[in-house]
Amino acid sequence: MSKTKVLNLKDKISGNEADLSLSNLSEVPVRELALFPKATVVDLSCNNIISLPPEFCSLTHLVKLDLSKNQLTCLPDDLGNLVNLQHLDLYNNKLTILPVSFSQLRGLKWLDLKDNPLEPSLAKAAGDCLDERQCKQCASKVLQHMRAIQEESDRAREKRLLKEKELERKREAKQKEREAREREARKREKAEEKERRRKEYNAQMAALAVQEQQKKKSEEKKKKNGQAADKKVDVKAAPKPRRSLIGLIFKLLLLLTVGLAGVAAACQLTDLQKEDFCTPINAAVDDCLSWAKVQEGVVRQLVHNLSSAAKDLLESTQTSKN
Q: pLDDT-derived band of residue 222, with 50, 70 and 90 as boundaries?
């Protein structure tokens, strides 16, 4: 905004009135008008203004506004912010509807909407506005009409919000239900997985038990077979060394006995008994017979001890082999 434009706008202000009519404007100089808050009456008639910018609604100091004979097709949505506006001239524009916030212009006392292609319900509320009285009625009836629209809009918005809340509630309920199903499915899958692992573990333990039992039976069978074989070996092998040792002892004793018996018999039964060498033999034989009788028990015990020792030797040998 140049200083020249400000000065030009200042030249068009007189007291509380700013006369911008017939200025060939296509846009409203909102920023310039905002610099003069004392200009509560603004005349923008007979220009080529197509629309009002949203910033226009910040000119809350306006009391009287003339926008007649322009090319307006719509008004800003926040027009209701002009709370001090009492007089509004929209004659000969291209308006079909008014913003819902129009109902907030509670101080509006004069309104002219003639020569606009208004929708039927709005046109009926506006009336003809041919004189001061009718323009005042137009302001009153249009405000009532817009308040009804505002209320209907509020109800529709409230209904829409309720519907949106209901939809949101249903979505949340469905989401919670879906999450609950997913949690239940995960829980069921975990339980099934746990049951499967438990069955696998039980099957493995059962298989190991069977293997252990079979192994134990096999070892017991081998042990029994080994013990039976050992018994057979003991039965067959043990008597051999026993018979050999005892037989050897008996053979030695037998030979000794036979030899002694032969010499003794020769000295006792033959003519040799008179010989000198038979005398000690005969005496020895007599002593031996006497000693043998005395030592008979000792010999028997010796034979028994030898037999037991031989048996123990065989058993210890067999045990070390096993």
A: confident
**Burial 124-137, CB ≥16 within 10 A → b, else e:** ebbbebeeeeebeb
Helix axes 239-269, 132-237, angle to 10 degrees: 10
Is the domain spanning 3-156 CATH 2.50.20.10? The answer is: no
Residue whose tokens read 């709370």: 83
What 3-state DSSP class applies to 162? helix
Which residue, among 66, 117, 58, 100, has the nearest Cα to 83 in the 3D structure? 58
- Six token digits for residue 303: 């034979």
DSSP string, 79-132: GGG-TT--EEE--SS------GGGGG-TT--EEE-TTS---HHHHHHH----SH
The rounded distance, in Å, linking the Cα atoms of 99 and 287 is 164
Q: How many CA atoms lie within 13 A of 265 on its CB side?
A: 6
How does pLDDT run across 255-277, given as a tens digit for each residue? 777 776 676 666 666 666 666 66
- Residue 39: name the closest of 67, 23, 62, 11 by CA: 62
d(CA 12, CA 311): 151
* Residue pair 56/85 in contact by the 8 Å Cβ criterion: no
Which SS3 state, helix, strand or coil, does residue 112 take?
Answer: strand
Please state the length of the chain: 322
Half-sphere exposure of 213 (CA within 13 A, CB side): 6
Domain positions in the chain: 3-156, 238-321
pTM for this model (two decimals): 0.53
Give the type of residue at 288.
C
Write down the mean pLDDT value for the chain. Answer: 84
CB distance 91 to 114 below 8 Å = yes
